[in-house]
Amino acid sequence: MSSLLEFIEKEVKRRVYETMIDCFQFDQGQVEEAIEESHHGSHSFYRANDEYVPYWRGESRETYKLVYGDLRQIEAHIDVTEDDLLHEISREIARIERKIEELQ
After folding, report:
1. Phi then psi for 56, rounded to 5 degrees?
2. Alpha carbon distance 17, 23 (integer Å)
3. CB 86 within 8 A of CB 28
4. Rounded CA gap, 101 and 95, in Å?
5. At 59, phi and psi to the nearest 5?
6. pLDDT of 13-52, one tens digit each?
7. Are 85 and 35 in contact (CB under 8 A)?
8. What global pTM score does this model have?
């Protein structure tokens, strides 16, 4: 009887862990989708930048340079955060997979 209970307990834990992995993989997909949208937005911005900004002069050009610099810094910060987040999600998935292996 105890072996049946142990089997059921392990099976329940395995399913919980698999559900956790599914959730993390869903989150990972959401992050990757957000990254793709972010890169698409950046690409559109830089394309517009290359097309229109060379003709700007005076105060508008100087103000734009400040905004452009801020945007570049934000973009760099987002890139680092994206990489860190994806790394942590992958790490957590691997940790849970090890728990599943230990159950077998």
Report:
1. -80, 145
2. 10
3. yes
4. 10
5. -65, -40
6. 999 999 999 999 999 999 999 989 988 988 888 888 888 8
7. no
8. 0.76
